[in-house]
Amino acid sequence: MYDYDEGDDADCINCGAKLPEIIEEKGSLSVGPWWDGYCSTHCQQGKPVIDIDAILRDLDPYGSLEYTIGYDNNDGDWTACFDYEIVRHHTKGVLVLYKIVVDSDSGGFIETADQGESAFIFAKNIIEDWTGIGQELDGPWSEEDIQQAVETSNRWKRDMIIDYETDFADGWHI
Length: 174
Ligand SMILES: [Zn+2]
Known about the structure:
- By secondary structure, this protein is an alpha+beta fold.
- Helices cover 31% and strands 27% of the residues.
- The chain has two domains: 1-48, no CATH class; 52-167, Double Stranded RNA Binding Domain, CATH 3.30.160.
- It contains six helices and six strands, in the order E-E-H-H-H-E-E-E-E-H-H-H.
- A hairpin with a 3-residue loop joins strand 4 (76-89) and strand 5.
- The N and C termini lie far apart (44 Å).
């Protein structure tokens, strides 16, 4: 008989992820790597795992100013800055980690507006989405501001694809 009293709230010995509960199916237990206290074969083999929170902390869109959109004119200013890193997570697969910092001198704020993990299919549209958000604000965008946002968004997507093809070409479906 299998006995797994701690199954409801046990963590993976290697990475600390919550382990799924043992599920009984048709009289037999479904067996997974968590059988021995690990979330995956990766952890069972004691391999290192990436620290998503640490990578998010290190992303510095406002420092690098590599991808920025927004406006700055007589009515005020608003700038959104973006940064990302692609990682391979041992159970979630290939992810885009991203951070967005929004800055406004006229509004008197600079803040991390969003950060997290995303599949490429959503991450590629982040700047496009934020161009829409920014244009709903009061300050008018010039044609040049809009054109620049489109170019930044295109560069964001292109760089992401290049990074993927360079380091993660196996197992990621765009
Ligand atoms: Zn694990």
